[in-house]
Amino acid sequence: MSPTNYLLLSALLFTVGAVGVLVRRNAIVVFMCIELMLNAVNLTLVTFSRINGTLDGQVMAFFVMVVAAAEVVVGLAIIMSIFRTRRSSSVDDANLLKY
Amino acid sequence: MTGLVLAQGAPITAPEVAYFAISPLLVVLGAACAGVLVEAFVPRHQRWAAQVGLTLLALVTAGVLLVAYARGGAPAATTLAGAISVDSPTLFLWGTLLGLTVAGVLLIADRSVEPGGAFVTDAAAGGSGRSGPVGTVQDRITAGRTGMQTEVLPLTLFALGGMMTFCAANDLLTMFVALEVLSLPLYLMCGLARRRRLLSQEAAVKYFLLGAFASAFFLYGVALLYGYAGSVRLADIAGASVASQRSDTLLFGGLALLVVGLLFKAAVGPFHTWTPDVYQGAPTPVTAFMSAATKVAAFGAILRVLTVAFGDSRWEWRGVLWAVAIASMVIGAVIGLTQTDVKRMVAYSSIAHAGFILIGAIAITEQGLSGTMFYLLSYGFTSLAVFGVISLVRDADGEATHLSQWAGLAKRSPLVAGVMTFLLLALAGIPLTSGFTGKFAVFSAALADGMAPLVVVALIASAVAAFFYLRVIVLMYFSEPAPDGPTVTVPGAFTTAAITLGVLITLLLGVAPTLALSWAAGGPFVS
User: Fold this and answer.
1) CB neighbour list of residue B369: distance below 8 Å, 6 or more residues apart
2) Are strands B393-395 and B77-79 parallel, antiparallel or unpaired?
3) Mean pLDDT throughout B273-300?
């Protein structure tokens, strides 16, 4: 199968993630959509690694995984803290800062 | 290519590391790790002194090493297998970042303005009872016993380490990792406020979700450029952009996504939506550090990416960045007019300034490079001092940031009103302040590169923005103070030192800018 198909699939996954970030209300789900975008990028990197015949892309995918894991730690901590004060993780409820 | 060689079983040679060149970076990151250990093992009542001492010592050591390296006259070079480039712009930006962080740490560590410090770790009000709502008896007892929550200081050092790597990164993977190392501590620092915790947490959530969204775009841009050039080294991308047979869609799609991520961090134009909320909600000392230092780091990276990797294809993308710069200036200046909160007003002012800085960054000339870096230095210290002054005007509820509360401030405290006036005039770009010199350097570089229409828009935008700075000045001097208005706290030594540093540099760069301009014009990027 042509590697191009994997590029299309990863572009599709990235778009699904981006649309999810824009339309979903729950902070956890928004965060999951961001993770989906990062994983779509991993697929792109690995595919290009195959197309280019170099291993750099695969190594980069590992870096992205580690960074994503660190981001989960910080992100869930922040979402937890706002949930404990507000009893809600909806991004629409957090609306004190405006204008 | 290295990957394939590796697979064939060739011996791995360790990359050369120029330890002296990257020593400031190593000191900062090492001290950040040591700070975590201090937080874990030093008894609570000694922590504040230990952390502040460690942080300031690390910053001074890093500064001394930086000066020693720069005076040693070593040639600009890349190190760590080409991942980090220590050249003249890197040294200038590192110096700027270290100076800004010293002032930022002084503001953050101050305990006199807000008794017990401005930070809390357990942000859930009334949660586990470690410190209840601010102002209660229990809270005062806790604050008196524990001194101050000091987790914020190692976080500051980690963020600084990320920023220093970010503007020295010579390949896009290093740049991505540095982007996260600088962002993650900042997200946390935004949510640590002792007062107005709901606002602070909301700022942290907004900053985190939007920041992670933007870094995903940045990363997809990196992946597309890797597909285009077969490497993420900036020099290789530049080489491929003139020689590759691959589709230009990959190159420009990658560039667009990459630049979206960078412009988000720099709070430019249409990617600014997080800025006012986060600047308002975060604890003011953190806002001061973040607004100044993040801008320096992000524009350092933008300059390097645009100059080194995309300098040859600049005629293709420049039109888009013209539009972005105009959007940023107009949004910042016009929406800034309608603001009623001082912190939000300064946030919109920073968006307008980001537009001005971008003008210098897209003039891919030596003059543009030095002008932009000088502007970053001058704007950073001015904006930091402005937030320092804002943190002094308080009432019983904490900071009084609504504009109406600032009425007649000059009658209560002529000194603070005078300092604020000087800083606002610097933001507006009045001669004899650093703001004027910086704008002059950037706009003349843009004119020399044939961007006259953009400079005209920029001048109009600065005139519009001057109106809302002057409005605050008029309010402070020509209104009667409300009887129950805010008081001006007498700052302790740390805050005084930070504000004085900001004001002195703003004045010096306005009166005698030659030395800093010649440092900024030290040499081109090396890749």
Assistant:
1) B89, B303, B307, B360, B520, B521, B524, B525
2) unpaired
3) 95
CA B386 → CA B242, B343, B379, B500, distances in Å?
Answer: 45, 9, 10, 11
**CA distances to A42, B20, B137, B160, B493 from B54, in Å:** 39, 21, 32, 15, 18
Strand partners, B171: B233
Q: pLDDT averaged over chain B?
A: 90
| Nearest residue, CB atoms, A85 vs list B201, B213, B224 | B201
Separation of alpha carbons B423 and B224, rounded Å: 43
Of A18-22, B143-147, B247-251, least confident by mean pLDDT is B143-147
Q: What are the phi and psi torsion angles at B74 (to 5°)?
A: -65, 145
Instruction: Give the integer Cα–Cα distance in Å for B332 and B266.
Output: 13
Who contacts B442 (Cβ-Cβ below 8 Å, separation ≥6)? B356, B357, B359, B360, B368, B371, B372, B375
SS3 string, B323-373, reads: HHHHHHHHHHHHHHHCCCEHHHHHHHHHHHHHHHHHHHHHCCCHHHHHHHH
φ and ψ at residue B324, rounded to 5 degrees: -65, -45
d(CA B139, CA B134): 6
Tell me which H or E stretch contains B24. Answer: helix B23-41
What residues in B contact A38, CB-CB < 8 Å? 216, 219
User: What are the chain B neighbours of A47 within 8 Å (beta carbons)?
Assistant: 227
Test A97 with B212 for CB contact under 8 angstroms.
no
A20: its two tokens: 């999810």
DSSP helix/strand/coil, B488: strand
pLDDT in tens, B437-452: 999 999 999 999 999 9
Q: How far is A21 from chain B (nearest CA, A)?
A: 8
Lookup: tokens for A70: 């660190």
